[in-house]
Amino acid sequence: xxxxxxxxxxxxxxxxxxxxxxxxxxxxxxxxxxxxxxxxxxxxxxxxxxxxxxxxxxxxxxxxxxxxxxxxxxxxxxxxxxxxxxxxxxxxxxxxxxxxxxxxxxxxxxxxxxxxxxxxxxxxxxxxx
Length: 129
What we know:
- The longest helix has 15 residues, at 104-118.
- The chain has a 4-stranded antiparallel beta sheet, sandwiched between helices.
- The protein has 4 helices and 4 strands.
- The chain has a domain at 1-66.
- With 129 residues, it is an alpha+beta fold.
- Helices cover 41% and strands 13% of the residues.
- The protein is globular and about 45 Å long.
- The chain starts with 7 loop residues before the first helix and ends in an 11-residue tail after the last helix.
- A hairpin with a 2-residue loop joins strand 1 and strand 2.
């Protein structure tokens, strides 16, 4: 049995079950080698992650959420319907698009997010509030 002082693995299992059941407002992804769960409306806080050696994990919740939105668009994370706000995804697209054309990585991220979440008939459109 793994050492799990905060029962984080149980919590991640519960979030994954809610995503699989299609309950709105949940997402999961592995960010910097740490499993992170997102809950749109939570008393525990919107993001829950724990790893005693996860010193590289970004501390700001907003950074974790942005990375999770990108991971879900890449099919590297999972989310249930009505989890992310349209305004947040639009802001990410605008931010990434503002880089000069020579910066390929942010421009490609903007295109990915636009196609996955915002275009008409986008596969990720149902994940937005």
